[in-house]
Amino acid sequence: MRGRRTHTRAALVLLVLAGQSPAGAGGSGNGDWRSFQGTWSASGERRSVAVEGSGTATIAEVSGAVVLTSGEGLSRGFRGQAIGFDDGQGASVGRCVWTDARGDQVFSRLQGESLATGKRFRGTITGGTGRYAGLAGEYTFTWQYVVTGDDGSAIQGRAIGLEGQVRRTSDQ
C-alpha cells in the first residue's frame, strides 16, 4: 500500500501564508515552534468545466519533489502530492500529503488563489504518521511558474518561498 501511495499521482497545490512564530519559538520540546523553508516542483493533470462569467472551474492533481533547505525535525526531501479545486472565481482549496523516504507522512489542508503563476497558497498542517504523528503547523508558498500543456490537461509548476513552522502537539 505504501508503494502505491508513493507512486499514485495526487495533489493540487495550494499552500500557505507563513505564520509568525509565537514568542519562545524555535525550541525542541513539545509545543515549541520550528521553522522550515524549501521549494516544490510538481506536475500532474487538471480537468476543467466552464462556469458563469466566462470562468473555468478546475480539479487538479499534482505530485513532485518537496525539498526543504532549512529547518529541523523534518526530513529534507518528500514526495508532495496534492489534489485541489479552483472555483473559477479566484479561490482554491485542497489537500496535500508529503511522504518521506521512510514512508512517514505529513498531512495538510490547502487554500489559496487560482492555480497560476505568481499566485500564493497557504497550507495548514493537520497531523502525520510515524515520526510526524502529532504535528501541527502552517506554511505558505508562491507559484514561480505554472505551465499548461497544449491539450490543457497536463500541468507543471514550481513553488518558491515555501516557508512555515511546525510543532508537536502530542507525544505520539
Can you give keywords for this protein?
AOC barrel-like; 1 helix; 8-stranded antiparallel barrel; 172 residues; 8 strands; mainly beta; 3% helix
Topology:
Layout: H1 2-7, E1 34-51, E2 55-71, E3 77-86, E4 92-99, E5 105-112, E6 120-128, E7 135-148, E8 154-168
Antiparallel strand pairs: 1-2, 1-8, 2-3, 3-4, 4-5, 5-6, 6-7, 7-8
Question: Would you give an account of this structure?
Answer:
This protein has 172 residues and is mainly beta. The chain has a single domain (2-159), classed as AOC barrel-like. The chain has one helix spanning 2-7; strands at residues 34-51, 55-71, 77-86, 92-99, 105-112, 120-128, 135-148, 154-168. It has an 8-stranded antiparallel β-barrel. The two termini are 22 Å apart.
